[in-house]
């Protein structure tokens, strides 16, 4: 990539659904690259699909990014910039680089199939470019409307005799890349209803907004050649490009925001911590160790775009679960305290340190809050355990309790009753917490306290 002191990047999602982890990966790579070098991040909503784009989805994208920790330095949406696209289209038409085509989708598809049946590449033959003004007027009289294609610069003198025309760029994540413009159909820039497809608005916006680096998924590699040509046709300097590998789900299928697969909203609602998700999304499929970072700044320092693999990366929710637990188990009380207070469950640092190794989700703290308050159903003990619990109640250490009260108490009970191991500890845990597993009782018993402990053993 270009070695610029202050890179400017953009993330340009379509507000036609909620973001999923694949979208997040692109947003993260742009944000991490820019912030790692003191640059800027632009959120640009590609809302040219007026039928499916909604304000609700647009707001959802902003919320999803903010939850992760990405706050744009600038924001815009393409529906505000139609005049700029019209001006660019007019410039291309005047130069003879944007021409009308009147084929229907069905006609184009039949032509593609005929070419493929003959063993030929299904490249558009520039039929629209051959038509005279009279022929075009006749087609319009039939009720047809034109879509407009960009004439790729893949010929010397005759546009109907394209020759190999290579476009090269040094890709940030894949090294030297080459695309032959002669292997491509002239891209459609304007639909038959007059609305713009992705390509022209993207190029115009990148140029107008001073975008220096375009970082996106590997499915756009082929598009890059045509877009570089379009930048030059508009008299603009192309940015540097980087194409990261794509994510699949655990079964190897692609991710789709339209089905809600692994959406950020559903993961957030499911209790996933943002830094667990950000760390996994950014580091999976790279040559770097996949580890949990405690902050976006830490992740920005760790991220290296040159380490991203070319092969698809498989996202496994089980790995996300494990990283989420690891993050919670290491979370300091100072970070957890405001969230505990908001939930009315702040019992101090000792409580948090005791319960955090047992959390898969932050909200799991509620069950240990209930246990501490005594709001649980005791597990029924058998007759022998009831007798043991009676002895245990009589042998409770006197107040004030020492820090190692659990150790002193169970050691005395072991000597008194000859119980040991599970037979010694499990009846006490069940009686005091209503559960067979949980926090270290050496840490949790002092939180319960002498009075509540005696009542629970009764």
From TrEMBL:
Localization terms from the record: Cytoplasm
Start and end residues of each Glutamyl/glutaminyl-tRNA synthetase class Ib catalytic domain: 9-321
Residue span(s) of domain Aminoacyl-tRNA synthetase class I anticodon-binding: 386-457
Domain of life: Bacteria
Motif segment ('KMSKS' region): 254-258
Catalytic activity, as annotated: tRNA(Glu) + L-glutamate + ATP = L-glutamyl-tRNA(Glu) + AMP + diphosphate
This enzyme's EC code(s): 6.1.1.17
Motif stretch ('HIGH' region): 13-23
Annotated GO MF terms: glutamate-tRNA ligase activity
Sequence positions that bind ATP: 257
Major localization class: cytoplasm
Alphabetical list of Pfam families matching this protein: Anticodon_2, tRNA-synt_1c
InterPro entries from the UniProt entry: aa-tRNA-synth_I_cd-bd (IPR045462), aa-tRNA-synth_I_codon-bd_sub2 (IPR020751), aa-tRNA-synth_I_CS (IPR001412), aa_tRNA-synth_I_cd-bd_sf (IPR008925), Glu-tRNA-ligase_bac/mito (IPR004527), Glu/Gln-tRNA-synth (IPR000924), Glu/Gln-tRNA-synth_Ib_cat-dom (IPR020058), GluQ/Sye (IPR049940)
Main EC class the enzyme belongs to: ligase
Family named by the database record: Belongs to the class-I aminoacyl-tRNA synthetase family. Glutamate--tRNA ligase type 1 subfamily.
Job of this protein: Catalyzes the attachment of glutamate to tRNA(Glu) in a two-step reaction: glutamate is first activated by ATP to form Glu-AMP and then transferred to the acceptor end of tRNA(Glu).
Record HAMAP family: Glu_tRNA_synth_type1
NCBIfam families in the cross-refs: gltX_bact
Oligomeric form and interacting partners: Monomer.
The protein, known as: Glutamate--tRNA ligase
Organism whose genome encodes this protein: Pseudahrensia aquimaris
Encoding gene (name): gltX
